[in-house]
Amino acid sequence: MPSYTVTVATGSQWFAGTDDYIYITLVGTEGCSERTLLDKPLYNDFERGAVDSYDVTVGENLGEMELVKIEKKKYWVHDDWYCKYITVKTPSGDYVEFPCFHWLVDDKEVVLRDGRALLPKDDKTRLVKQHRHKELESRRKTYRWREWQPGIPMSIDANTHKELPRDIQFDSEKGVDFILNYSKAIENLCVNQFMHMFQSSWNDFADFERIFVRIKNTISEYVMQHWKEDFMFGYQYLNGCNPVMIQKCTKLPEKFPVTHDMVADCLEREMTLEEEIEAGNIYIADYELMEDISPNSTDPCTLQYLAAPICLLYNNSQSKILPLAIQLGQTPGKDNPIFLPSDGQYDWMLAKIWVRSSDFHIHQTVTHLLRTHLVSEVFGVAMFRQLPAVHPAYKLLLPHIRFTIAINTKAREQLICEFGIFDKANGTGGGGHVEMIQKAMRSLTFRSLCFPDAIKARGVDSPEDLPYYYYRDDGNRVWDVTKSFVWDVVCIYYDSDDTVQKDEEIQAFVKDVSSFGMQDLDCCGFPKSLKTREELTEYLTVIIFTASAHHAAVNFGQYDWCSWIPNSPPTMRKPPPRQKGVVDVKFIIQSLPDRGRSCWHLGAVWALSQFQENELFLGMYPDEHFIEKPVKEAMELFRKRLAEVSSVIKIRNEGFQEIWESFICDKTWESG
């Protein structure tokens, strides 16, 4: 009688193994096997990390293998099991791979297709077409849309991490428990004694070092030493934690009436301000989105304040970006002065601090939360709802967005919810952060997620005009390499534009993102269909780049740039000054966060900057969802090109200290 050898791989993560009964049924074009218990006498089957083989005997040859059905039944208590893959050796000696990468929970079953990536048009038999339909039907019941707050991207319908489908939960919930991670951060940073000292101000700037001495690194210590200097203020617009605010100023806005006489002493090229603008040397950062945002009022004992500043920046003759003028509100007037480098030391210092505080809020809520996390969740939910596991786009996207939904759910559960951690230290807590997201949705377009388009739209795409903008340079390199990889994969499965147009699943995916995930907002401009292979390539590149490279760029540097509190205050306890000449160092210290909020902030940026256990980086695909040789070759080429980009960056960064030291040497701009 024909015999099939079935090899089963159990995951290596914690609690992946099971003592439950595991049954298998093989389904081929000519028939199916009996439901067979996989069990070896006197052997502990399906242990964590194990690869076990079993013989399945059938009455006659099953023909070409189509499906494998796996069932788990309770032995003593329900014992979840993570199956990585199943390989079937046929009587003729052929091997057929069935990728799984699923948790089997309770008395559930999983039906697997073989590992080939197939478009809907490639399914020829009624059985596999039916399987494809049932899989999506089941997924749409499991992955449901829900509106967390009105006017923001939709999220998954789950209140807690435990309510999520098991396949997208973290292997260990502790790894993404914000409260636990903050507690660890506070302990590691040795700031426990300050945690509950709300309303208690620091004595002076040096006093902030009392919560800074435990964990320092090259960048954070450098920021602490140079945060007052104009070059450091300007440099962060290029390569700090939020390098997306700077844009070319082609005309001064009427609401920001800076004159040539105000800044003449700062201009180096014997040109007027208007001529400097025409020459492309003037840039601007406008925090208009912060206007009328409600400040945090959750603590009646501490008034907290926000500002919507505008900052004019100058690309000087040494190609340094330096602040030229700052207005702390959007409406010009006598009580909203324009602060200048020539003003008193503390007037200028406090104006820059206010800009840095507003920049922190935009970074946390818009650049980071909205434009990476929430957008990626939209793509993720739509993917699970509209793309079956056999679809090449599903296999391509899954490694990049699998855990985004889980971390976002945990954030809504603990971090950005009412009375969450965000409320404790941030000036936009208590609802202001939601207002910011709602306002930011007006400028969130699909084109703004395309990295080269976003750079060009801000007028900062020229390395000759604006050197040292490594966020742009490195981002373009990674974007190009990623897009080239995606194009290679797309061309393997789509032989023409017509194939894209006739792929009803990819079209349903794109429409679900636009019509449901983005709530059909006209201003967003998300496509509702794709017509060409180029459009599909760009769309998939946006998803991968947003969830990986761009998220890394604006997330992992938070401790570097934001741990020194005066450089990125999470809240301000005094209103913005309405006149010049009334500020002293005591007023600035009283404006900055108190001891308790400083410690919560420090714990937050430390915890958010840490890599997760078993963190995967771009180009790493340990789970083999693709089995085809051409795709594996494309992946290998992708990794090679990424390594080349990394090498270029590493060589460049080795000379970083010399670049910074050259910036420090010329301090003609420094006031006081």
Task: Please characterize this protein's 3D structure.
The chain contains 22 helices and 16 strands. A hairpin with a 5-residue loop joins β7 and β8. The protein has 672 residues and is an alpha+beta fold. The protein has helices at residues 126-142, 178-189, 218-226, 230-239, 260-263, 273-278, 345-386, 392-401, 404-415, 421-425, 432-440, 446-449, 451-457, 470-493, 497-501, 504-517, 533-555, 558-562, 585-591, 595-609, 629-654, 656-665, and strands at residues 3-10, 21-28, 31-32, 36-37, 51-57, 65-73, 81-89, 95-104, 109-113, 145-146, 155-156, 247-248, 282-286, 310-315, 321-327, 338-339.
In short:
The protein has helices at about 125-140, 180-190, 220-225, 230-240, 260-265, 275-280, 345-385, 390-400, 405-415, 420-425, 430-440, 445-450, 450-455, 470-495, 495-500, 505-515, 535-555, 560, 585-590, 595-610, 630-655, 655-665, and strands at about 5-10, 20-30, 30, 35, 50-55, 65-75, 80-90, 95-105, 110-115, 145, 155, 245-250, 280-285, 310-315, 320-325, 340.
Attribute tags:
672 residues; alpha+beta; 5-stranded antiparallel β-sheet; disordered C terminus
Unreliable stretches = 664-672
Radius of gyration: 28 Å
Return the structural class.
alpha+beta
Strand content: 5-15%
What is the residue-averaged pLDDT? 91
Number of helices: 22
Give the end-to-end Cα distance, rounded to a whole number of Å: 92 Å
Q: Please give the number of β-strands.
A: 16
Q: Assembly state here? A: single chain
Percent in helix: 40-55%
**Strand count, sense and closure of the main sheet?**
5 strands, antiparallel
Q: Tell me, what's the shape?
A: elongated
